[in-house]
């Protein structure tokens, strides 16, 4: 029997929610993608939380939040600890995207779902692969080979191929077959007849204009606004599709010598572009080629100014400008702030380049007709002042004292364990501790009880139940050596530990974060978020153009028909699109199409029977192969024999081979055959679906020719005519199109 | 699917003579160095196995010029090569590529890594410019290089590609930026070609990786043979000490280095040293290579191919943006006053700026020349290492050699320690040494033989054009899938189906399943012809019955006209008064049956007026048998020539000196020659099938 394959969607089926799927192959559980939306709604992750602990490996396909946003949260909260596999750009740009999200959210709310440290530690375990690298899993996954392949949607975007025992499971969502400025098209079409294909129906109902036309409309819309003295805002993602937009603008500006300023504004824009510059291997052939010839890095942007904070934008000279700012959803980030400022001016243009996530402000503005006014929450992080500050500091002091006490207790225990004296000797210190922390004394007591009664940690252990023992204080004859400064209230002396937000620059940043960002993260001033609701009149023009870089409905269908999987699983896409694609595929692609609901496990184990047999030299020496494209084919009659090692081996028949019905192998295209006959000097024409050859003979193909994959894939050809020389001649030509076996 | 490899043999006969065999699938794997066989330079290794051909590297010999510098391309037919893999951009590994791509019949595909390709173009353009050879000796020009760029494809580290059934991927080799070791897998036999590699991490490069899978054959460089490198920090110290002491005595330091690759490492060392020694800041360091300047963009872009150290540094500032090193365009611009350090190419001191400076400085005792890497036999750099009393200058005059010559190797080639540990961990059963000077290679071979004494490891050191042949009897495994595999057959049962081969994988598929498991499709062709016939249908029926075993008559469901089904394959129908129609599924047997029916019908029309005489054909069994015997004999004669009737009723077939005895009754054959026995048996079986009438069951099988 074939390899057992089960698919369980955890999020993102029959709607446009983020993507997250559990695929288990012979009991080895892959979590493919781990997405979250821009609202960071924990309820979406419920199904994931239930299975997180039994996941054996995580595969990431793209670097945006929809595909990997929940990773830090899941690693922290759900105990997800499996190794992660991704391409280098997905890893790097994914990390940057998460930073940008965090920083944007933190700016306007008490965002506490995960911290920068959580992001860093989540991305620490990523194994980076290159395209077409066959990565052999070991241990539980022995025998499974995973390989990323070009998806074409985002830089480093991946179509995952998971192979076991020669059967392929392919996960391909958000692929793009079109070649773009910075990306090659997907290689999905090169996979033929995989056992299972998991793909999305997101774009099943959409159609795209040609790229040339769309690009022209894009720059026209922008230029019209700029010439009308308006500003253009492009709400973009952090490090994904924005790269393509930057290149379009850069190239157009270069060719037409335009001088309108272009700004790329995210918290991490300059690191993004720096890293992107070193990812040329992952980009399109034309970019690689131009680099090889001229050594001009396409992402050495001459017309785009990279900004990492909004003040710089405000300092920019007056006049029309283009700003590409994150987030694309307009929920948070610079794009949101700029939108609020610019929306009321009818000269301005907000140009959406991707469909907004469901339920976001961007989506609302893309509706037809667009709303006249939108409610926005204007939030700002302001430093604490006056009473608030005092109260906050007092609280911090308390916390600090408590920590000091805990440390004292720990220390005391350690001392006790080491020197083996009795507790009484340590009493003065404990009392000292009490004196310091009357307010939190209860908790202190509790800890002390635990420590004193019954449990003596081994001297070598580092206080197993207290993770914070690093606060080692010095001791002298009078107890803990204190720093009097700690007890003096000073604004500027607040250290890292006393901040409401513990910011730390992760090692992975490689110091690449921009100064502004760093200053934001290291901002030690206690601050709070002040929000005010207001309604913004939307007077500016709103335009949506599809620069999502996904294949459109028609291409998806033709690609699926070409790939012709034995079983097809549809995920991610509105209910309508999913149903539409399902019906289409049932008719034209394969008879096994599944569109499971959330947490519904479907079994897509192939019902394929297979056994291996050794081909003996004796048999092979008598086989004459015929070559057909990549394939070579022959008819064999063999006798099975068991070898000593229990292997099946096939030998030539000892008796006369039984006659078999001959097989004609080949694919007859009527149009090609017509050409061929014409070349042979025979008059041919199509008449009523049949090919009229010469005067009398007709050739027809019967049966549904469009059906692929199904049982009807055997072509039925009828040749008719009166008995004449021509008939035999044409039959001869027809036979020449096939191999008879 | 392991294979027994029989003893490798070396033969020096030309490969061309075996061209006919190349196309035939064989179990013989042949590896022939066309260059770098027991020498250093012009790396080029040619390999064929199972009709697939791979060539590794395509370099030139730096000590020669023009055609003489090429590998021995005339030994092979370039048009047979499927894949050409270039390990790194150095001239002795890549410089004959434009020639090979543009001026030979080569039509395969070429692969190298991204960084290699970017530098390859710059390097070769430079090479064309600086080589001072006459126009007719030029192997290629700038245009050839540009055209070759379009043909070169790129491969990333670890990326697995498949071309024409040859699977290959590459590992980091550590030697220079973009250097790769290629692993090639043909039908399960793996060959690793290391190119130049180094297992030591340095300032900017990673160490060579250890491949995950052990290869069956490892073609490995042996540049440094049994030598051992000094530890890196000692070498660096010697290097900086020599330079420091020379310039403090007012001398000049010449470092002849190849423009790219190791030079970048040395510059990193110098720049760092100068930063740490402010007292040296007034001594200029020149880097006389516009080429290296042009390559900087490449070094800045492919940081992902370098080690963690440089990537961390890159985060802060570009380490390749040297603070104490200035570029030098030509000797005319060079203001030679006081001490200075000049790094100039080429490293061989054969020509160019390094030679010009050498000629200028070689007479002065306080000057120093530091040779920082491997030098090829036959070049001036190699000559001066042995410190002769005099040297010949470029202008042909001789001059005393007073300059201090220091040889401190920084070339990132593996030394004996690295080679032996690498091979020990890899454990290849066959090792082929290339890219090493003959004596050095011989010593390495001896030492490795002792090292691997307890294993059955074969170590071979072929010379140029000397082929190494090995046999790999790989067993072919096929996967039976689909309907055919619904039940695993028992011993002795027969299995019939389509054997489909793609690359080196085999599948056995039922004809109906073909389209499911491959991109091939099958077709049924229905034929229908009409024949004028105005006679009675019964006549036809009667005649058919005389010929065919099975003639069933019925009536057509739709039109109600009588039909005949002949031989269960061809349906004859009386369409109208004047026409008969025949229809059947195309098949060799059915076609034949239909032809005979057509002939019969036409005959019947012509003989219409005649009254059919019912005469049972006289069946004479004995006569029939005799006839069959005669035919069998005649056919055997046509196949084997000498066929006689033996005394015991058996046929005696003699071919050359081999004799086979055939028993006509049961088809038993006796012969001492297995091959002949088998052939006679098959022939007899086929003849018997041919002389017998077609069984009615043929169509239903």
Task: Describe the model.
The complex is a heterodimer of chains A (741) and B (701). Chain A has 21 helices and 34 strands. A seven-stranded mixed beta sheet of chain A has the order 6-5-4-3-2-1-24. Chain A has a seven-stranded mixed beta sheet with strand order 7-8-9-10-11-22-23, with helices on one face. The longest helix of chain A is centred in the middle third of the chain and has 34 residues, at 386-419. Chain B has 701 residues and is an alpha/beta fold. Chain B folds into five domains: 27-227 and 413-472, Ribonuclease Z/Hydroxyacylglutathione hydrolase-like (Metallo-beta-lactamase, Chain A, 4-Layer Sandwich), CATH 3.60.15; 232-407, 3-Layer(aba) Sandwich (Rossmann fold); 478-517, no CATH class; 526-605, Outer Surface Protein A, domain 3, CATH 3.90.930; 626-691, TATA-Binding Protein (2-Layer Sandwich), CATH 3.30.310. In chain B, strands 1-23-2-3-4-5-6-7 form an eight-stranded mixed beta sheet. Chain B has a seven-stranded mixed beta sheet with strand order 8-9-10-11-12-21-22, covered by helices on one side. In chain B, α4 runs antiparallel to α5 (142-151) and α15 crosses α16 (588-606). The longest helix of chain B has 20 residues, at 621-640. Chains A and B meet through α9, β25, β27, β29 and β33 of A and α4, α8, α9, β24 and β25 of B. Chain B: Residues 41-229 form the Metallo-beta-lactamase domain. Chain B: Keywords: Hydrolase, mRNA processing, Nuclease, Nucleus.
